[in-house]
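Researcher: Sequence recovery benchmark, item below. Answer with residues only.
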């Protein structure tokens, strides 16, 4: 099947588990995020904070990095979306994540879990098990992380994946059904599913994997796109927008050092028309 955008003209149905599902163009979700300028609360790792804040500003959202347990619940209550990332978590951070997530869940607001390196230690696995029980809106990770969360092992190398995306597709579907959320497996071609429908997103360039925290920062874009929108479609659109901006930045840079500034510029300047024309999304 040749690559197609989520919708090629206006609004068009894709068959989905015996029902018709209306999927809008990726630009709908980009425009929604820019119009809403959602406040995205991030409990993320120390390495990612600055990068993620800049990426959220570039996409039109308002970022906040708040992780002290004394204030996370209060801050979550005024936020539109939340991301949690276990990259540099400790016991206090896990407790703060659970407090913030509980607030978001009660308010029916989206939250995104990034299980960084979950297969590396028992501490990470135990923390993620508690977070999974709180039913993330979206889980985004590499293939090894998703397979570990689903209980299928995984060939992780620290925080890096040792598995290919296609090896994790069944695990992603099972995890989505178990949690009731959306699961996105990042890789050269991303795989996104809610356990019923599934899509592949073919946008992006290899240099993106050479810039640390690019994946962590993507979580914020997903969260921003999910505000007021269906999570599956918004996640697919966020992955496409991120990848299209990466492709545009790669054409204006010569390596990882010059790529990230070019990426921020490309994401800021990304037009709805360019996103719809360049998104490569196929039903899976």
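Model:
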């Amino acid at each position: 099947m040749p690559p197609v955008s989520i919708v090629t003209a206006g609004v068009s149905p894709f068959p989905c588990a015996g029902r018709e599902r209306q999927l809008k163009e990726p630009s709908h979700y980009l425009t929604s995020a820019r119009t809403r300028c959602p406040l995205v609360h991030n409990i993320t790792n120390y390495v990612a904070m600055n990068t993620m804040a800049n990426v959220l500003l570039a996409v039109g959202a308002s970022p906040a990095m708040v992780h002290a347990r004394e204030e996370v619940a209060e801050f979550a209550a005024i936020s539109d979306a939340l991301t949690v990332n276990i990259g540099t978590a400790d016991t206090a951070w896990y407790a703060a994540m659970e407090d913030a997530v509980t607030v978001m869940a009660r308010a029916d607001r989206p939250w995104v879990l990034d299980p960084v390196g979950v297969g590396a230690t028992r501490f990470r696995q135990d923390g993620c098990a508690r977070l999974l029980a709180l039913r993330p809106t979206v889980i985004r990770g590499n293939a090894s992380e998703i397979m570990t969360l689903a209980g299928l092992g995984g060939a992780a190398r620290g925080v890096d994946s040792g598995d290919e995306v296609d090896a994790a597709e069944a695990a992603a579907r099972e995890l989505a059904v178990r949690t009731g959320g959306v699961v996105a497996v990042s890789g050269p071609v991303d795989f996104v599913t809610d356990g019923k429908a599934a899509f592949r997103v073919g946008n992006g360039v290899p240099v993106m994997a050479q810039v640390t925290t690019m994946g962590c920062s993507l979580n914020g874009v997903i969260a921003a796109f999910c505000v007021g929108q269906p999570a599956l479609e918004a996640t697919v659109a966020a992955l496409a927008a991120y990848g299209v901006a990466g492709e545009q930045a790669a054409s204006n840079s010569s390596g990882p050092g010059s790529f990230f500034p070019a990426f921020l510029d490309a994401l800021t300047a990304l037009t709805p028309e360019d996103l719809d024309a360049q998104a490569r999304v196929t039903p899976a």
